[in-house]
Write a structure and sequence with these properties.
Elements lengths: L10 H21 L1 H26 L4 H32 L1 H23 L3 H34 L1
Helix pairs in contact: 2-3, 2-5
Amino acid sequence: MDHAPDNKTPFYLKFSVSLLGIGLLAAVVVLANEIIIPILFAILLATLLLPVVKFLKSKGCHKVISILIPVAFTLITFAALLYLLSTQIMHFLDDAPALKERLVEVGNSFQKWVNQNMNITVSKQNEYIKDTVADIKEKSPQVVGKTLGSVTGVLA
């Protein structure tokens, strides 16, 4: 005989426990993200390198060597990408004065256009820009700190 279990637990209790569980899970994920993200990145990297390791082992490579070769190749690839990115940034910074001059010209013509089409004076526009820049300067150290913390956490 098949008997359905007698379910006497009220719906509101089940719902409350489910919501509490979801909330606790979300809190754990938020609070432990500095631990969870590197672990997930390591799992992703290991999963991506596993077929190469298996292939090298099937060809008769020693287990340690078949692991070291893909890891070394990956590290060299990341180092090369980092080098290329840094050289491109250096070239960009070399061109920064010319870019700044061109942006000033474009900004001046844009301010004239705004003045003509929207009747906002250049001095009022400059005041808006000054306030925005001050706000950005005030918040930028926090943003840079969080960004560097995230990057170093992933690299660790």
